[in-house]
Design a protein that fits this description.
44% strand; Immunoglobulin-like
């Protein structure tokens, strides 16, 4: 279940970019700062995070509206996570295989409007204070053409562990 939620989060965040090489604020509080930036020439989505708070009792909703520039038959994500400039993980996920996929957005065609939302980021509650950088590359098709590339920066100013 946690793996499904993480994959969906990666997909949603993968489209949460606005302008190449420029950081944009998604959330900023005394406890948390969340920024995102594009590292490719992908399109502009509408992305929201409500409320702008992550703690042990908060239920966060991340919503996204996007029009993909390519068909989403096969969709892959490469995710690199660093904490305080040290790479802690480098994973590759298959989000849509083109066969019996679990997500509704699999199979979406180029130009279709996709409206997605996701709630409850329970696994984030185990993060410790620090600066996290998440680089996400999304690829489509058998030749793995780049669909989107972005960098999410999370500055957690206190530990979430209860």
């Amino acid at each position: 279940m946690a793996s499904k939620m993480f994959k969906l989060l990666l997909f949603l965040l993968g489209f949460g970019t606005v302008c190449t090489s420029k950081k944009h604020v998604l959330c900023s509080t005394l406890r948390l700062e969340l920024f995102y930036e594009k590292c490719d020439d992908s399109y502009t989505p509408v992305i929201k995070m409500e409320p702008c708070e992550i703690n042990k009792d908060t239920r966060v909703t991340l919503s996204l509206t996007i029009i993909p520039r390519k068909d989403i038959g096969r969709l892959y994500a490469r995710v690199q996570v660093s904490k305080d400039s040290v790479t802690v993980s480098d994973f590759r996920y298959v989000l849509c295989s083109g066969y019996d996929d679990e997500f509704d957005f699999c199979g979406a065609l180029k130009g279709e409007t996709l409206k997605l939302s996701y709630q409850d980021f329970r696994y984030l509650k185990q993060l410790i204070k620090g600066l996290y950088t998440i680089k996400i590359h999304l690829f489509v098709g058998e030749k793995e053409e780049l669909l989107a590339c972005f960098i999410v920066t999370v500055n957690l100013k206190f530990s979430l562990i209860s």
